[in-house]
Amino acid sequence: MEREYKENQMRLLASLLLAVVFILLAAPVGFVGQHVPAYGLWVATPTDFLHVPGSAPITSSKVFQVESLAILKSGSVTCVTFNSTGTLLAANGDDNSINIYDVQTGRLLKSLPGSARNASQFAFTPDGNLLAAAYRDALIRLWDIITGEEASVLRGHTGELSSIAVSPDGEVVASGSVYPDSTLRIWDMSSYAQTTVLKGEDGEEFFDIAFSPDGTLLAAATGSVTYGKVRLWDVETWTLLATLEGYSNIVSGITFSHDGTFLITASYDGTIKQWTVGSSDDPVVLHRYDEAVYSIDLNPDDTLLAVGLSESTIRLWDLTSERELVSLEGYKGPVWSVAFSPDGRLLASGSMYPDRMVKLWGIP
């Protein structure tokens, strides 16, 4: 009887050990969460969000943090951007490189080599074959995503680059710089030649640029420490069509709605404004924060606005009700860049020192 008892105990212990091994193999090491089949990512326990008093209740099933793709060892994340299909994510890496991630698995696919200074902004071409990157050494590098090699280097700026945008048809690249160059330059992607040089008034600097969805307009966020402006150019003639004013500091972010009917701007003066394209009406001031706004982006159906703030939080706004829904936390440094995936189900964000971190957030 004693021998039979011991054998039963051993069999029970073996079964328990097998169960533990199965659980460990089935779950990501050091990461507990819920699997999202659509992306193959693991969703973390939703502890990094803060409900905004007075707003509609947000439950853990509605806003939650997705597994961070990378924690960078050096340098700051100044840009995160998806390709047009949402399968790839580009973000600043260490040693001034740019990392390309597989969104479904979180795997690092390529690390595009760094230069003397890091890239401030970058954007995929519509076909996803190239990444156009604006560097602080005054150069634009066009990277072949398939090979990871430089396809071309565009020279013309004489100062630090701050912004870059690719036209919706992929035929034009626009790049902006800060003092002392302070120019907006236009490049033909068929010849890689510079075709136009645009300037603001009194040497104002360029901090963000965006093409309208139909490619007929180019908007530029400009300013200095005492004022900010948004300038709108006609892409066919490069005629200045309008100047939007009313900021007491740099305009740091700009994004068109996906239907092209309105424009959202952000400023270091803390304001978020919504302008109607082609109208002389005053803008709707969505909010005025007591801190600088560093980055903004709209989801594909133009109902949600993501706002990256200087004091380490991301705010999500419902544009239909013009209400702030939730504050996403978990950073210690400024949130320099935010970007929705093309299907709107993910929000990528990047922070500067001391975090140097890329995160993905699930959006219901």
Defining key terms:
single chain, 31 strands, 364 residues, mainly beta, Methylamine Dehydrogenase, Chain H
Structure description:
With 364 residues, the protein is mainly β. It has two domains: 1-30; 33-362, Methylamine Dehydrogenase, Chain H (7 Propeller). It is 7% helix and 48% strand. The chain contains one helix and 31 strands. It has one helix spanning 2-26; strands at residues 33-36, 41-44, 49-51, 64-71, 80-82, 88-92, 98-102, 108-112, 119-124, 130-135, 140-144, 150-154, 161-166, 172-177, 184-188, 193-198, 205-211, 217-223, 228-234, 240-247, 251-256, 262-267, 271-276, 284-288, 293-298, 304-309, 314-318, 323-328, 335-340, 346-351, 357-362. The strands form eight sheets. It has a five-stranded antiparallel β-sheet with strand order 3-28-27-26-25, with no helix packed on it. The longest helix is centred in the first third of the chain and has 25 residues, at 2-26. Mean pLDDT is 83; it is low at 12-70.
Report helical residue fraction.
Answer: under 10%
Straight-line distance between termini: 59 Å
User: Radius of gyration, Cα only, in angstroms?
Assistant: 23 Å
Mean pLDDT: 83
Shape: globular
Report the structural category: mainly beta
Q: Helix segment count?
A: 1
Total domain count: 2
Stretches with pLDDT under 50, minimum 5 residues: 12-70
Q: What proportion of the residues form beta strands (DSSP E)? A: over 45%
**Largest sheet composition:** 5 strands, antiparallel
Q: In which order are the strands of the major sheet placed? A: 3-28-27-26-25
CATH homologous superfamily title of the largest domain: YVTN repeat-like/Quinoprotein amine dehydrogenase
Reported CATH architecture of the largest domain: 7 Propeller
Oligomer: single chain
Work out the number of β strands.
31
CATH class of the largest domain: Mainly Beta
CATH fold category name of the largest domain: Methylamine Dehydrogenase, Chain H
